Prior knowledge:
The chain has about 850 residues and is α+β, with helices and mostly antiparallel strands. The protein contains 24 helices and 29 strands. The strands form 7 sheets. Strands 11, 13, 14, 16, 17 and 18 form a 6-stranded mixed sheet that branches. It has a 5-stranded mixed sheet with strand order 4-3-5-7-6, sandwiched between helices. A 5-stranded antiparallel sheet has the order 8-15-12-10-9, with no helix packed on it. Helix 1 runs antiparallel to helix 5 and helix 6 (about 145-155) crosses helix 17. The chain starts with a helix and ends in a 12-residue tail after the last strand.
Amino acid sequence: MARLIDAEKTRRSNWIVALFIFVLAFVPRALSLNAISIIDEFQWQEGTQAFINGLLSGDFLSTYCRYHPAVTDMWLIAIGLGFKYLVMLLRGIYPAGFQAFLEQSAFPSYPNADFLVAERLPFALITSISVVLVYLLAKKLFGRPVAWLGAGLLALDPFYISHSRVVTPDGLLASFMTLSILSFIVYLICERSRYYVAFSGFAAGLAFLTKVPAVLLVPMAVVLTVMKHATRNTEHASRITHHVADLAIWGMVAFLTFFCLWPAMWVDPVGTVQRMVADMTADTGGGWNQFFMGRITKDPGLLFYPVVLLFRTTPLTLIGAAASLLFFSHASRITHHALLMLVICILLFTLFMSFGTTRFDRFLLPIFPSVDILAALGLYELAKAISARRGKPVKALTLLILIIQAGFALPQHPYFLSFYNPLVGGSAQAPKVLLIGWGEAFEQAAGYLNGKENATELKVAAQYPASFGPYFAGQTLAISRMYPTDIWPWLPADYIVFYINGAQRNVPDPGVVSYFRSLELEHTVRAKGLEYAWIYRGPQFILSEAPAPQYPAQADLAGKVLFLGYDLYGPAESDVKSGDTLQVITYWRCLEEMEENYSVYVRLVQRTKEDEAGHLWGQTDNWPAQGFLPTSQWREGMMARDKYSIEILAGTPPGDYHLEVGLYSVLGGGRTRVLGRWEAPQRTVRVVKPLTPPSVESLEIQNLLPKSLGGRVELLGYNLSPITFRPGDPLPLTLFWRAESDLDEDYFVLLQLQAEDGTGWTLHRERPADGSYPTTLWEQGEIVREQLDARIPADVPPGRYALMAGLTDAESGEEVGLASLAELTVEGRPRTFEVPPIRHPLEVNLGDQVELLGYDLDATELKVGGT
Length: 867
């Protein structure tokens, strides 16, 4: 009778422990299931729609999703959706048929957040049951205390929690592989019932249906069998036959599970497997960019997974696993063999995965349940040692261990992936070592933008639309493009949400990442000690509505592009100081698609009496949209917006200036061809005096003098290149003046060419800035940049000449001062008196002064826009 009572108490106790473990595992996995959307979930959610449609229509081949079968995922998602549909019907909510209900579960590029709980709940339930089964199997190998502690550590393992509450294969794979391994070890060591072999094969079949790395269970089963055979010190043929039969049963059950639960196998088993192999071969040729140890690489090397293990375990798990190896020699026979087999499986899986072409931290997840069991063994032995010395109850110490483990995991809710082992640097060190972010905190970014008044009208480009879109009220755009010839999808965006793992890997493109970083940062999304995302104001390069420019233009450029106008932004709108940066927003409409890629130039010019082209006081040249929207990608009717920055040259004289905009292409030999240009009809930019003069260094003077002219004005230096000319050549000279006092006198700038014999030629005599900024307006300390229009006179004979610059009084002509700038060489022009071959002779007399002999022409037929 006492035995019956004890047995009943034991059964009741086992049920209580199992229920406790289930609750411990289920609660952190089931709470806030729709809080975040993980990056990789959407592909399996999309695949489930095809899976369900294939089941309902009888097109079983369409239940194939990809070479990672994820059949278990799709069954669980389908069950969750079916349950949600049934609940809606029972509550009196009648969707327009199951097909319409199914289509609502996912939008074109991201899941519907309202369906996430229904889809994820079965995953939380199955993995929680798996933790209980791990406890039951581990109890046979290591005893109840270690099994209880191991299941508790696993239930509260933040890395395992994070992957067992989302609709991705990794959590299920870890659960099924662990159950298969433990059940097989139980059979080999302590239970000779082949029910354990069958259960191991069933779990293996589920793992095969989940993800390709499950095939490693096959060599593991063989290795474990060989290890068991080696410990028996016998080579009887009957024993070998027995082991072969065990493996055959295991493989048969695994195959039947794989076959029966995957409808595609029902109609074409060989073709389905061949398709898996072909797709896997095509997809794993080059690997993915990874971030490891501070560098971007496709091959992080053999250290990658050991480092992942260090960062992704908790301090307790890491300490306990190490301690289990120390107590290895003191373990009982069963524990000794089980521990050795688990370690072998951990090493085999890690080694095989280390040679894969693609490596991510979650790929190591299948070893974590085994590591937690090893940790439980080590921690339990440590607890016993402490109890023996301190007299503390072992049960109390093991309960304390679980409380500490919960203290590591539960505060991370719902961002369990944000936990990194503090023993190796935690969240402060992890971004420098490992790739961070799997979709966490996108909902925070969406919440911030949803707070905008016009949130529903906003277009926001996010690195992972499947993680951002479910929570954003407006339109979600992608950042990456599918093909190199595609237009970047983020070009029309009002805001950019840039994610941490994109920054770590320079994804989608180093140039794009650099451009994002140059944008105005509005908000940083932080969670659990990590910066997950940055929200930038978007460029809005492509417009959906006609703009209303501050300065309308409507200029047709060669029938290809219509320049719609521009906006000006500066420190004081249209008034800027020399040295300031003027922001120009241009607006365009494509009239006709173009094959050629044109550059845009925006110039600040001032016309002169001698030169209609004027002087250039600031210019920027760039591809449209920083090169992200070349004109060859413009489509007829497309409206584009672009931003350019013009730095006004330091020392630019105050006055009114024109803005000029144009499109041009670069031809061979460095030549350029202007497609079309537009100039503002009024002087739209006014340059005013800066509050403080620019530094001499900012002027970038090529030749410093400096020389005082009469104590009134200092000639700081000049820019001149080249110094060899021919008669009639322009002289591109820039002078730099500094007023040594407030000037009341009106001076002319004098430029002369002097020969060694004293003969001179006056090249220029005019008020500064073509008369627009006379010296009477100069103030003490003010610096003025002077661009001169001068030419070498046609009658200057060849020779060497001194170039002189100075000031003269405007009324009296009296020279204030003169400075020698440089020695110039004037060469004679080559002359020929023989008529060369002419393709098209004319012999036309032009006013008895010149005779036009003819011309050469390469082509007589041209396309519009051709050269």
